Structures are given as structure tokens and as C-alpha cells.
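Hello Y.,

Per our agreement to keep a running log of every chain we model this quarter, I'm adding this entry. I've kept the format consistent with earlier entries: sequence first, then predicted structure.
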Amino acid sequence: MGISEAIRKQIKASGVSHYQIAQGSGVSTSVLSRFMAGETSITLATAEKLATYFELELKPKSKGSNRRGKTST
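Predicted structure for the entry above:
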């Protein structure tokens, strides 16, 4: 799952209105609504604001994988 999809999933699961998320995160409601509708992507800065709002962190999928998804030997 990519970062955008993880953020979308968190927004849906939160049950919080787009207005409340926008107010708390500093992301405009129009950007948030278009992102959730799949009409547009979000910038890294917007992703960071939303991740901070939801207290999300990036973590590696597993210890043995590298950026291309291959395992180390």
C-alpha cells in the first residue's frame, strides 16, 4: 500500500469529517475532498500535514527488503 492509499484509508476509518480534518491539519477542504474522491493527488507537504494530524509514521515493510522489493542475501 502506498502513502496516499494509507492516508485515504486512515481518513475513511477515522470517521472525522473532512471539515474537521482540514481545520486540524491545515489542509484545505477542497484539496482534501478532491484527494478523497480520487480526482487529484496530494503534495508531499500535504501528506506530511495529514500524517502529522493522524500521528502516522513511515516504517519499512520488513527488515530484509530494499527499495526495489528484493530481499538481501
